[in-house]
Amino acid sequence: MATKDKNIWILIVFILSGLVIGGLLGELAKQVDFLWWLGYGESFGLNSPISLDLSIVTITFGLMFKVNIASIIGMAIAIFIYKKI
């Protein structure tokens, strides 16, 4: 089965799960002396949320990404697994 025939939502779920699991493992690896580099990363996004007050309803927007080496590796593994199945 070719990649273009596969469902894009399954790919998105695979990528997000790879990022989450990799990020968790990266945070845990920070505490191990020889695996500290897996936890190296950066955060970017909105530091304070943006609020839109429409008198009847208030909408708050906020988005923050925290990426480390392990989450990037997890995403790459997720894409590899997706292509294999």
Can you tell me about this structure?
It comes from Candidatus Merdicola faecigallinarum. There is one protein chain. The protein is of the alpha+beta class. Helix content is 45%, strand content 21%. The protein contains two helices and four strands, in the order αββββα. It has helices at 8-29, 69-84, and strands at 41-45, 50-53, 58-61, 64-68. A two-stranded antiparallel sheet has the order 1-4. A hairpin with a 4-residue loop joins β2 (50-53) and β3 (58-61). α1 runs antiparallel to α2. It is flat. The mean pLDDT is 88.
Uncertain ranges: none
| Mean of all residue-level pLDDT scores | 88
Strand residues, percent: 15-25%
Give, in order, the helices and strands.
Answer: HEEEEH
Number of separate helices:
2
Please summarize the sheet with the most strands.
2 strands, antiparallel
Alpha-beta classification: alpha+beta
Radius of gyration: 17 Å
Question: How are the SSEs placed, and which strands pair?
Answer:
Layout lengths: L7 H22 L11 E5 L4 E4 L4 E4 L2 E5 H16 L1
Antiparallel strand pairs: 1-4, 2-3
Helix pairs in contact: 1-2
Write a concise synopsis of the structure shown.
Keywords: Membrane, Transmembrane, Transmembrane helix. The protein has 85 residues and is α+β, with helices and mostly antiparallel strands. Helix content is 45%, strand content 21%.
Keywords:
alpha+beta, 85 residues, 4 strands, flat
